[in-house]
Write a structure and sequence with these properties.
Helix content is about 65%, strand content about 0%. It contains six helices and no strands. Helix 4 packs antiparallel against helix 5. The protein is globular and about 40 Å long. About 20% of the residues are buried. It comes from Microbacterium plantarum.
Length: about 110
Amino acid sequence: MTDERNPRRASVELLRAEAADELSVLVEERLRAGEDPWEFMEELPSVDELVVLMLRAENIAAYGGGRPSSSRNYRVLRQIAMDHPELTRAVWRLLGSEPHRRWDAATRADAS
């Protein structure tokens, strides 16, 4: 992932910090809206899952922004795991056959 189509060179630690900030904003918004955290926390991705989704979105945007086929989605996610070994568990959770969170099924359907 060193070509000019993927300009982001941030470390995984920085990406995790950005994702944690994003998740904290989402949690705060939902709490202010009166939602029960016991109800919505399982709907949110983990920090590493959000990092993977951000990297996936950047890759898709860099290659024209079109909705990827399931095989291209698999290749993109697999490449993320190879480029960032510390995100491998999150990649494989996102590629799993059974969604482990409610939001995951919708994400997987959008990627097909």
